[in-house]
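Q: I'm writing a short explainer about Deoxyribodipyrimidine photo-lyase for a general audience and would like to include a description of its predicted shape. Could you first generate the structure from this sequence?
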Amino acid sequence: MNDRITQLKEKEPADNPYVVYWMQASQRTEYNHALEYAIKKANDLNKPLLVYFGLTADFPEANARHYAFMLQGLQEVEKELNKRQIAFVVQKTSPEKGALALSEEAALMVVDRGYLRIERDWRSQLADEIACPLIQVETNVIVPVEVASDKEEYAARTIRSKIHKQLDDYTGPFSESKVDRPSADLDLPFEKVDLTDIPSLLDDLGCDASVPPVDWITGGTSKAKQRLAAFIEEDLADYAEKRNEPGLSVTSDMSPYLHFGQLSPLYIYHQLENVPSSENKKAFIEEFVVRRELSMNFVFYNEAYDTYDCLPDWARETLAEHAEDERETVYSLLELETADTGDPYWNAAQSEMVKTGKMHGYMRMYWGKKIIEWTKTPEDAFLRALYLNNKYHLDGRDPNSFTGIAWVFGKHDHGWKERPVFGKVRYMNANGLERKFDMSDYLARIGMLAEDN
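A: Of course. Here's the predicted structure. Afterward I'll give you a sentence or two in plain language.
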């Protein structure tokens, strides 16, 4: 546990009435190391604990689709905290500003850890101004980022063994603490946002309504646990062999829940403990532990993670050498966004993302590669891919998303046979899809989604 804890502001506890947990990246009450640490600190100080969440309508690139899913999860957080007699204070404010205001009544404050620039900036700004102790607890990865590696890793193969060597140390049992001083019934002098009516709250926030919420998936820890249980029961046995089949949907759908911190990766790991060892189990752990935590490593150690400059030198050099190559077809951003290309497979993938907020993982790679091929410069292609991904995907604006887009352009990969436009960056085409898969199944599946909508 100690490796998960960082003192962002070292001071003696203040003579104030509450301990506050600023919940932001880890929006759950189960398997939350930050929450349990805050409870223990509150018990030690014999003070009630408040949990605070800052609800800002200005999070970069977030829209109604993202907010609706998040708010569904926060409704459950409020319900579950109430069961544990802990007050939940949601305020419509920039999170770090609300945390600073609340800290004036805090003996100490605990915060969970986020890896994106804005999340780190929030915590840094608060640490500069807060007058009480500020303690960060890392709980959205299994192996803490700096423990896994002290540098940016080149690829999954260079971080894999480092993570696996540490797994036994960070996958032990998780226990919850009893709350000694309940706060749920206290008459608190803080304004709180009413979470009961999500559509009205979305209107009140004034967030971008151009991308509507989806109804095939619901936010919240309990829904995540149900989906995970169904995946383990029904699909895990075929995961290694069939997860790349676009016509099928052999997927856990955990990424939106992990993005908002509504489910702990440690919980997922524990649910697999009684599953017999197999290539399927190994492949799933590779995805939600190794690959996911490689993405955390990337955005933490590479300050340019959301720009073209994040790419390795070899990739930028080879793409630059072929930047003037003639493109057979160039599409506008509007044509891409409206799935108006001459490629039915790409159009289906784009439509899947726009309608559902997700895209089949293999098609996500193909989708990104074709944007390179259909855009005048690789720099513009990078911006287009990131824009579309972050706008429509439920798990957009995530370390996995930034890493996935960068991979399309050569990050965490190596050079391949040189060809026009791509240079030595990995190439994908429709013929490759057809050789590997029955793509009519994918077109039929996406066609059914269109009919349902």
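A: For your explainer, you could say: The mean pLDDT is 96.
Q: Perfect, that's easy to follow.
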